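Worked example (supplementary).
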Amino acid sequence: MFSYTLQKTATDCGARAGQIETAHGVIQTPIFMPVGTLGTVKGVHQRELAEDIRAQIILGNTYHLYLRPGLDVLEGAGGLHAFNGWKKPILTDSGGYQVYSLSGQRKITEEGVTFRSHIDGSKHFFSPERAIDIQRSIGADIIMAFDECPPYPCDYRYAKDSMHMTHRWLKRCMAQMGATSGRYGYEQTLFPIVQGSTYPDLRRASAETIAEAGQPGNAIGGLSVGEPAEDMYETTELVCGILPKEKPRYLMGVGTPDNILECIALGVDMFDCVLPTRNARHGMLYTAQGVINIKNAKWKEDFSPIDEHTPCFASQQYSKAYVRHLMHTKELLGPQIASLHNLSFYLWLVGEARKHILEGDFLPWKNQMVKQMQRRL
Amino acid sequence: MFSYTLQKTATDCGARAGQIETAHGVIQTPIFMPVGTLGTVKGVHQRELAEDIRAQIILGNTYHLYLRPGLDVLEGAGGLHAFNGWKKPILTDSGGYQVYSLSGQRKITEEGVTFRSHIDGSKHFFSPERAIDIQRSIGADIIMAFDECPPYPCDYRYAKDSMHMTHRWLKRCMAQMGATSGRYGYEQTLFPIVQGSTYPDLRRASAETIAEAGQPGNAIGGLSVGEPAEDMYETTELVCGILPKEKPRYLMGVGTPDNILECIALGVDMFDCVLPTRNARHGMLYTAQGVINIKNAKWKEDFSPIDEHTPCFASQQYSKAYVRHLMHTKELLGPQIASLHNLSFYLWLVGEARKHILEGDFLPWKNQMVKQMQRRL
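After joint prediction of all chains, the assembly is encoded as:
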């Protein structure tokens, strides 16, 4: 069922347009995936995700969903799609990233990771096998391999050992995928993850190992964890040069609108990030003309739409002054509008990128957009 | 422009079906008005209010809007309709109620009320004239007279003096209405308010005074402030017997679903209350079958819709287990769904009441519904 069709590659950069097919429908790439941590994209109805934001796939966090509502509830519902009513594809991370960053205590061994819940301190164990089983239960269309995401900066020795463990864990993930099947009657697909911190030789070795694993899609992890943007771009370029062209490439946890366009130019097809929703809740709005801090006094009597260019009712029908008022009075509708707008903008942006790739003028458009979008309005 | 048509009165109780016309459209009564304190019904988009909840009129709070965003912003926008994008009728309270209940310090004299903002402690003054001017600036279709709402319980002497002052204030409100005109080119209509606490002779005197004032609609204030439900019903019945039949009657701040049906039976046409949205945010969901506390463990694996009878996507598409999960994890979407559901239920309920009044079987239907709705599910 899962397939990827490469539709066009730019001649002057690595940008690609493609199409992924999954059991829950088609994804046109490049694509941005809104993050639905706990089975909900914060502040956004599933109907709005589909019809207004025009999301084609969303992400769920295995660590969070495993703790709440828990696997009994998710399995009882018939998986996350049935639980939250989102009918299009879902990708889940493996839980590793949150275990490393959120858990108060965790111990990593070759077998897996023992950790304590950030909610009640209860003790849990994730292994490659367990991470696959949990993602099977969640019912993700795309399952991520259980990896270790080393911190930044990370010394060479640690990064190398960690990378090798991630590769060994991948074998166990693949074995577990083979030994089990889709829990709810549809196919689930594993994406392995390239690690290696910012060391070019490690990244090269990891990309080669991941490419050889022969999975239907591949991911780049361990970036956007504090390293300079230049390091992120260089690493992404290096890895994209090694990962197979005929499979989708997912850059995990990236990023700002200009990060996304730059990495599309390097050959990335899929992105996810909490920035558009998290920053929305703090009043930061992204537009093609630049970034708006809607709390600023300058918007107090600006009755123009938030952003008339983003094709979403929230962007076009609510004024800057109104959203500023909602943010200042801490009204629920403020974060709701801002989240709808930012996600709609992100989806519009990757849709425009795709159009320009297909039309052959992505690179000059990207260069222009990156300049514009970095402005502070 | 403002008009009321009485379409049908029940033969076995006081229930009425009617229609109000305003500059911003038609309101079919009996009606419930969602409360949009600060220019937003908490957690609900204006689009959802119109299309899903099917609200026909919403309420704004003069005290809150006067403080934030302030009259400069509201006037700059061209009134509240233009500011928040709600295109149907708006009713504003006079600000008095919040001044009495929210302000840390306030001093009531014949001239008006001096009070301090609950936000920054700044000093302000509301008088009957000022309350009219502010509501003119907000751009309400229906403007409420500036009254004193005495607390409950309230001694007879205070209630009587207060009532007389409210009547004197009404004359000043009417004079100010006459001396000014609609700020944004459409007509604004004043509703006076019956007071008199729970004293029948005061209520009778007040209702007669208000009826004689000859305004296009009338309101009953000072109820739902802590008195027993029986007192509320008796007072409402007494007042409805005096207020003119050919004008709409608005019972302020009421109430639960059964309160509303009981008061429709007594002859009330319009209601507002924060209960459906405030209780929604705490996980209390109203249905025709009874009240649901969605946080309870019993809903943990109940994958049935919140309420399949309420005609709203949120009521029908999200499960009890999902909303329970969202409430437990304090996700924004939980209060959003619950608010959408409760308001949709309230609007469905008054719509059904209207149907039954028109069909002639309101009273038995009401008696059955009141029993059902009070159950705890």
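Two points are worth noting when inspecting this output. The interface with chain A takes residues 38-40, 42-47, 68-69, 72-73, 76-78, 82-85, 300-301, 303, 313-314, 317-319, 321-322, 325-326, 328-329, 331-333, 335-337 of chain B (CB under 8 Å). The CA atoms of residues 100 and 106 of chain B lie 7 Å apart.
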